[in-house]
Design a protein that fits this description.
The termini are far apart. The chain has one domain. Helices cover 57% and strands 0% of the residues. Helix 2 packs antiparallel against helix 4 and helix 3 packs parallel to helix 4.
């Protein structure tokens, strides 16, 4: 059985549609669940895809942990705008 993509797993853990992951009011929930996902549990391509989804810009990280930090930083900045 093929493993679900990181973005799908995150949406499922947050009980949200993928399209709702970027909604500002959901940032804390998304951050909480994202923090609990080990960076090495998903391939770098999944992490880069998640970074691109949150930032709306191309991402080319070389390390899953670095990409995870980037996503968490983006979410944290968005959360502070509430």
């Amino acid at each position: 059985m093929k493993k679900m993509a990181l973005i799908d797993v995150l949406a499922q853990k947050c009980n949200l549609f993928i399209s709702d992951l970027r909604i500002r009011e959901n940032c804390r929930t998304v951050m909480e669940h994202l923090r609990a996902i080990p960076a090495n549990e998903y391939p770098l391509s999944d992490w880069n895809h998640l970074c691109e989804y949150f930032s709306l810009k191309p991402a080319a990280f070389h390390d899953p942990a670095e990409a995870k930090r980037f996503c968490l930083d983006l979410l944290n900045k968005t959360d502070r705008q509430l």
